[in-house]
Amino acid sequence: MTTVEPPAHLSPDAAAWWRDVLRDYTLEPHHLRLLQAACEAWMRMRQAGEALTAHGGLTFTDERGTIRAHPAVAMERDARTAFARLVRELDLDTGAPSEAPRPPALLSNRRGANAD
Protein backbone atom coordinates (compact mmCIF):
# COMPACT_ATOMS: atom_id res chain seq x y z
CA MET A 1 0.00 0.00 0.00
CA THR A 2 1.30 3.44 -0.94
CA THR A 3 1.21 6.00 1.84
CA VAL A 4 -0.17 9.37 0.83
CA GLU A 5 1.10 12.10 3.10
CA PRO A 6 -1.40 14.70 4.29
CA PRO A 7 -1.36 18.14 2.68
CA ALA A 8 1.25 20.36 4.35
CA HIS A 9 -1.25 23.03 5.43
CA LEU A 10 -3.21 20.68 7.71
CA SER A 11 -2.91 21.13 11.46
CA PRO A 12 -1.08 18.38 13.37
CA ASP A 13 -4.33 16.82 14.64
CA ALA A 14 -5.96 16.94 11.19
CA ALA A 15 -2.82 15.41 9.64
CA ALA A 16 -2.87 12.66 12.27
CA TRP A 17 -6.53 11.93 11.47
CA TRP A 18 -5.66 11.83 7.74
CA ARG A 19 -3.02 9.16 8.47
CA ASP A 20 -5.41 7.20 10.71
CA VAL A 21 -8.09 7.17 8.01
CA LEU A 22 -5.66 5.98 5.34
CA ARG A 23 -4.36 3.32 7.70
CA ASP A 24 -7.84 1.99 8.48
CA TYR A 25 -9.70 2.49 5.17
CA THR A 26 -9.06 1.86 1.50
CA LEU A 27 -9.80 5.05 -0.37
CA GLU A 28 -9.81 5.70 -4.09
CA PRO A 29 -7.75 8.65 -5.36
CA HIS A 30 -10.83 10.86 -5.78
CA HIS A 31 -11.74 10.24 -2.15
CA LEU A 32 -8.54 11.97 -1.06
CA ARG A 33 -10.07 15.30 -2.07
CA LEU A 34 -13.06 14.60 0.15
CA LEU A 35 -10.76 13.57 2.97
CA GLN A 36 -8.80 16.80 2.55
CA ALA A 37 -12.05 18.80 2.65
CA ALA A 38 -13.09 16.94 5.82
CA CYS A 39 -9.74 17.71 7.45
CA GLU A 40 -10.06 21.37 6.47
CA ALA A 41 -13.62 21.51 7.83
CA TRP A 42 -12.37 20.06 11.13
CA MET A 43 -9.64 22.70 11.24
CA ARG A 44 -12.14 25.52 10.54
CA MET A 45 -14.45 24.23 13.26
CA ARG A 46 -11.58 24.19 15.75
CA GLN A 47 -10.36 27.64 14.66
CA ALA A 48 -13.85 29.08 15.09
CA GLY A 49 -14.12 27.53 18.55
CA GLU A 50 -10.77 29.01 19.51
CA ALA A 51 -11.89 32.42 18.20
CA LEU A 52 -15.02 32.23 20.34
CA THR A 53 -12.93 31.45 23.40
CA ALA A 54 -10.43 34.21 22.63
CA HIS A 55 -13.11 36.84 21.99
CA GLY A 56 -15.17 36.13 25.06
CA GLY A 57 -17.95 33.81 24.02
CA LEU A 58 -20.92 33.30 21.79
CA THR A 59 -22.25 36.84 21.71
CA PHE A 60 -21.17 40.45 21.52
CA THR A 61 -22.94 43.75 21.96
CA ASP A 62 -23.04 45.90 18.84
CA GLU A 63 -22.76 49.71 18.70
CA ARG A 64 -26.52 50.05 19.37
CA GLY A 65 -26.42 47.87 22.46
CA THR A 66 -28.03 44.87 20.79
CA ILE A 67 -26.72 41.46 21.75
CA ARG A 68 -25.72 39.54 18.62
CA ALA A 69 -24.27 36.12 17.86
CA HIS A 70 -20.55 36.18 17.24
CA PRO A 71 -19.84 35.43 13.53
CA ALA A 72 -17.63 32.50 14.54
CA VAL A 73 -20.73 30.71 15.87
CA ALA A 74 -22.02 30.29 12.29
CA MET A 75 -18.54 29.39 11.05
CA GLU A 76 -18.21 26.67 13.67
CA ARG A 77 -21.69 25.30 12.91
CA ASP A 78 -21.14 25.29 9.15
CA ALA A 79 -17.76 23.61 9.45
CA ARG A 80 -19.20 20.97 11.81
CA THR A 81 -22.00 20.24 9.34
CA ALA A 82 -19.55 20.01 6.44
CA PHE A 83 -17.30 17.66 8.41
CA ALA A 84 -20.19 15.37 9.34
CA ARG A 85 -21.42 15.23 5.75
CA LEU A 86 -17.96 14.51 4.37
CA VAL A 87 -17.39 11.72 6.90
CA ARG A 88 -20.73 10.23 5.85
CA GLU A 89 -19.89 10.67 2.16
CA LEU A 90 -16.60 8.83 2.69
CA ASP A 91 -18.51 6.15 4.61
CA LEU A 92 -16.21 6.51 7.60
CA ASP A 93 -18.93 6.31 10.22
CA THR A 94 -18.50 2.67 11.07
CA GLY A 95 -21.76 2.00 12.83
CA ALA A 96 -23.92 -0.83 11.57
CA PRO A 97 -26.30 0.26 8.82
CA SER A 98 -29.77 1.04 9.98
CA GLU A 99 -32.57 -1.27 8.93
CA ALA A 100 -34.81 1.73 8.35
CA PRO A 101 -33.62 4.10 5.59
CA ARG A 102 -35.09 7.10 7.38
CA PRO A 103 -36.57 8.01 10.74
CA PRO A 104 -40.08 6.72 11.32
CA ALA A 105 -42.89 9.02 10.24
CA LEU A 106 -44.72 10.98 12.90
CA LEU A 107 -48.31 9.95 12.47
CA SER A 108 -49.53 13.21 13.95
CA ASN A 109 -47.99 15.07 11.00
CA ARG A 110 -49.63 12.95 8.30
CA ARG A 111 -52.65 14.32 6.49
CA GLY A 112 -55.80 12.73 7.70
CA ALA A 113 -54.14 10.99 10.63
CA ASN A 114 -56.13 12.95 13.17
CA ALA A 115 -59.41 12.71 11.30
CA ASP A 116 -61.80 10.58 13.30
From TrEMBL:
Record's protein name: Terminase
Chain intervals for the UniProt region annotation (Disordered): 92-116
Source taxon at top rank: Bacteria
Family annotation (InterPro entries): Phage_term_ssu_P27
